[in-house]
Amino acid sequence: MHEPAIPSLTGADPEVARLVQAEARRQFEKVRLIASENYVSTAVLEATGSVLTNKYSEGYAGRRYYEGQQVVDPVEELAVTRARTLFGVDHANVQPYSGSPANLAVYLAFLEPGDTVMGMALPAGGHLTHGWGVSATGKWFRSVQYGVRKETGVVDLDEVRDLARAERPKVIFCGGTAIPRTIDFPAFAEVAREVGAVLVADIAHIAGLVAGGAHPSPVGHAQVITTTTHKTLRGPRGAMILSDAEHAKAVDKAVFPGLQGGPHNHTTAAIAVALGEALDPGFGLYAHAVVQNAKALAAALVERGFELVSGGTDNHLVLVDLTSKGIGGKPAAKAMDRAGIEANYNTVPFDPRKPFDPSGVRLGTAAITTRGLTVEQMPQVAAWIDRAVAAVGDEGELDRIAAEVAELMAGYPMPGWA
Ligand code: DSN
């Protein structure tokens, strides 16, 4: 059953309540390997479902356009203070609705339409909002994109430097959505300094690892840091922009009134709760366990003949290139899902296939580590993936795997399920 219980919803709208219960059960029974997902605590769930959703608060604490902010102001101040403490930054804006709006606010703060931005190409592991062509950021700005080295699958810093020198971007993004290796923030900072660009580190995927000391921090290297709050950081769906003092005002002005209206106060409260949890020393153990699990999963997959982009991982993420297995990422991910192992199909660098039918699957260990799985279970998880990928079209075998997966997961409590 969903936890906290949902008796009012069940009474008022049994149809939605049934779907919420079904989703809770689905999350309980599966090995959830989508690299951008997690399980939030019941405290975060409660804050998200609180009456703070009823309040409008355009502006910032002490400078609002609506009255009645006696409670919301301290909530937002708490979130800001905790973000600043956790990441060691001068300034935090906790209002962006999600990662894409946070990145758009950066464009509004530091670029004019038509200005040059540099980011990692989406198929190489970047994000749509780092200037990819189909995104507004690629349409309304002059975007130049860097990638990874073909031989290593790792960011090509020579290309980054050469491109920056030639194109003189005003903003450089580092970070992305499918990068299995450590981001070299000092190297990016050196390039940005040389060409006079603002360096923006998008740490959406690794924010929890940075907070927990399991990935180097961009603080002191990137003037601006964007992040979602719901991936490895294990908070509600939302985002933050962190910055040094010099760039703070431009960031705030871009988020409100530049891009957004009223902040989602229930989300802000839940972000504060999640940041409080991340400030607990136990969170560092979690962050390191996430990385250990990813490394163990990567090793077990390699042992079974899977090819991994960059050969392995330094963080929470494993990018599997299925080319040598003779199967596309989409049928593989669909078979895995039927087998109770949830992942997303993903392009791999230099992918000859189309984005909607790419060569890879992307795996992440943030959620299963929250459930309590350890390195001991990773060979089993890899074995299930191997069996599922080999059993595309064999529904009987996929259902047998799903039953085994559900049996294992029944032994691991899930926040949000009782
Ligand atoms: N949703 C993010 C991810 O899965 O990495 C990208 O926007």
TrEMBL record:
- Which cofactors does this gene product need? pyridoxal 5'-phosphate
Which Pfam families does the record associate with it?
SHMT (PF00464)
The top EC class, named as a word, is: transferase
Q: Where in the cell is it found?
A: Cytoplasm
Name the domain of life: Bacteria
Which positions in this protein are listed as binding (6S)-5,6,7,8-tetrahydrofolate? Answer: L122, G126, H127, L128
What keywords appear on the UniProt entry?
Answer: Amino-acid biosynthesis, Cytoplasm, Methyltransferase, One-carbon metabolism, Pyridoxal phosphate, Transferase
Instruction: Look up the record and report any one GO term of the cellular component aspect.
Output: cytosol
Please state every residue range assigned to the domain named Serine hydroxymethyltransferase-like.
Answer: 11-385
Q: Which parts of the sequence carry N6-(pyridoxal phosphate)lysine?
A: K231
Supply the name of the protein: Serine hydroxymethyltransferase
